[in-house]
Design a protein that fits this description.
By secondary structure, the chain is an alpha+beta fold. The chain is built from five helices and 28 strands. It has a four-stranded antiparallel sheet. A four-stranded antiparallel sheet has the order 2-3-4-5, with no helix packed on it. The longest helix is centred in the C-terminal third of the chain and has 46 residues.
């Protein structure tokens, strides 16, 4: 037989003779097909690779491309060299050749606008898109001893950075040698913090100055307030004096609307609200004692704060006793500063925020529910969520959609509630992680949400367009919902008051009844006796009539 290649003919290596006796042990299969794989078979498997760390470094650009005998800094030498090159025939031919190509491209661009928007006049309807959210990045605590991400603040100018406060809030659970640093992260660089903040005590809350993005304040575990300028390094510029600060962890800090943009106020579980000017932090400018008994001693501990710039004299405090206090900073006397209180939670009020579109309505998050209140009603909330199996830890309104708010839970779920869609259950529930979510903060554009977990992981989520874009007539519909629910609660409240008045009147009558019975006891006995004998006489007369009738 001839081989495939004439130079290398095929030769038999082994010649095995046919054994007919073996044929009886086998069954002939006709036709016979067998698949042959040229590549070796490999098993399918997955592996989690190590995180790739990147760093941004700057370079200095030096002007180049000039001949060695010409100094680029000398204007006369460079001008002389340019004129010389411009007279060169090769240069002229190249420019003419490139000019025709460029002219053709310019004409083409003028004829067809590749960036033209054809359907600008059509309004996009976000209702058609189902609500969803996707994870963009995860920022992990770089320390070996993991701490909880307890508070988040977004960079005021854009969604490029976020500041995260890290701390261990469980009493006496801090490991020895625990790092006290907190970090500012760049949204696009999750591998390494953009900046490290070095407080003297772990931060419990952190807040950017909305008027100056380089300045931020942080509330510390020891009750002090620290102030940073990111242009001047990681160390705080100034720290409040410990003798004039809070005696418990500083849980919340909010900047006030003022001409200087340097005023803020804080609260703590020590039962105080303090006002500060970050230019002079030796002592607070004002103090309010959280006392509803008006005895001059703290009776409630502050956990959360709320301040609306359109109502500069009003503010609200959420307490660890489950009561929300409505206050007026410019009251005539300290006892009149606490205007009203709203009670409805069985545990600390972890989140408190007015609706950005309807400031009279505010959201509270505590125990197993989130509640929506109206300032006109103090007895009860107008709307509330169902009781969850897991404890709620934080919540906030959407800055762009008046009907949407968010809550975080101890089981690691983020719930998105849209009252335009349904009110009994969340519109979207996301299992962000397998541990407790401690805090959440939405960016002002309404499309980015940051959630902090118990082990220090901060998950950045991008919300779908249906959750981050206001729907048609949404504001009017939400107005009707809030007004209807407020009216309903007012009717129920008045009905409840009527029932209480009737019960009180009934109980007063029952108290008076025994006294009247004692006075009229003899008369009642005499009347009963008279009725008894009258009945006996009537029975006798009836029996006598029957006997006479029987005899006849």
């Amino acid at each position: 037989s001839s081989g495939i290649n004439a130079e290398w003919p095929l030769r038999p290596g082994v010649d095995i003779p046919v054994d007919e006796s073996l044929k009886e042990s086998f069954i002939e299969r006709n036709p016979c097909e067998s698949a042959i794989q040229c590549a070796p078979e490999m098993s399918e498997h997955e592996v989690n690779t190590e995180r790739f760390e990147t760093q941004s470094r700057g370079i200095n650009h030096v002007e180049g491309g000039w001949p060695k005998d010409i100094n680029p800094a000398e204007v006369e030498q460079t001008m002389r060299f340019r004129k010389k090159v411009e007279k060169d025939e090769v240069y002229i031919q190249a420019i003419q050749q490139l000019g025709s190509v460029m002219e053709h491209t310019i004409k083409q661009n003028n004829a067809v606008d590749i960036y033209e928007e054809y359907f600008n006049d059509i309004v996009e309807d976000g209702c058609a898109e189902p609500p969803s959210a996707k994870t963009i990045n995860v920022f992990r605590d770089p320390n070996d001893n993991k701490r909880s991400a307890v508070n988040i603040s977004w960079y005021p100018d854009n969604a490029q950075k976020l500041a995260v406060a890290y701390s261990v809030l469980e009493f006496q659970r801090s490991p020895p040698g625990m790092c006290m640093d907190s970090y500012i992260w760049d949204v696009e660089s999750p591998n390494k913090p953009d900046m490290v903040l070095k407080p003297i005590s772990p931060l419990v809350c952190i807040e950017y100055n909305p008027k100056d993005p380089h300045c931020l304040v942080g509330g510390q575990y020891n009750g002090q307030l620290a102030f940073w300028d990111t242009r001047k390094g990681s160390q705080p510029i100034e720290v409040s004096a410990i003798s004039n600060s809070h005696s418990d962890p500083l849980y919340k800090c909010i900047f006030l609307t003022s001409k200087t943009g340097t005023e803020c106020f804080t609260t703590s579980t020590d039962g105080q609200v303090l006002w500060w000017d970050i230019r002079k932090m030796a002592e607070p400018t004002e103090t309010l004692i959280l006392d509803i008994t008006k005895k001059g001693k703290p009776t409630l501990g502050g956990i959360s704060l709320e301040y609306e710039s359109t109502m500069p004299t009003k503010f609200m405090v959420g307490t660890e006793q489950g009561i929300v206090l409505s206050c007026n900073r410019k009251a005539k006397s300290p006892s009149e500063r606490i205007v009203a209180n709203f009670s409805g939670h069985y545990g600390p009020v972890y989140a408190l925020q007015r609706n950005p579109f309807f400031p009279k309505n505010f959201l509270t998050v505590g125990d197993w529910t989130a509640r929506i209140w109206s300032e006109d009603l103090r007895e009860s909330s107008i709307m509330w969520t169902k009781f969850h199996k897991s404890y709620l830890t934080d919540g906030c309104w959407s800055p762009v959609r008046p009907a949407v708010f968010f809550t975080s839970r101890m089981d690691g779920c983020l719930d998105v509630w849209d009252y335009m869609f349904k009110q009994n259950d969340p519109t979207l529930s996301l299992q962000v992680c397998d541990e407790a979510l401690n805090c959440l903060r939405i960016q002002d554009s309404g499309s980015l949400m940051a959630c902090g977990s118990h082990s220090g992981n901060v998950t950045l989520l991008e919300l779908s367009q249906s959750l981050s874009q206001q729907q048609r007539n949404e504001k009017a519909s939400v107005t009707q919902i809030f007004e209807r629910e407020t009216k309903r609660e007012k009717i129920l409240e008045s009905r409840y008051r009527e029932m209480k008045l009737k019960e009180r009147a009934k109980s007063q009558q029952e108290e008076r009844a025994p006294e009247d019975d004692e006075e009229n006891a003899d008369e009642l006995v005499a009347e009963a006796e008279k009725n008894f004998w009258f009945t006996v006489e009537q029975e006798k007369i009836g029996i006598e009539k029957k006997e006479k009738a029987a005899e006849q």
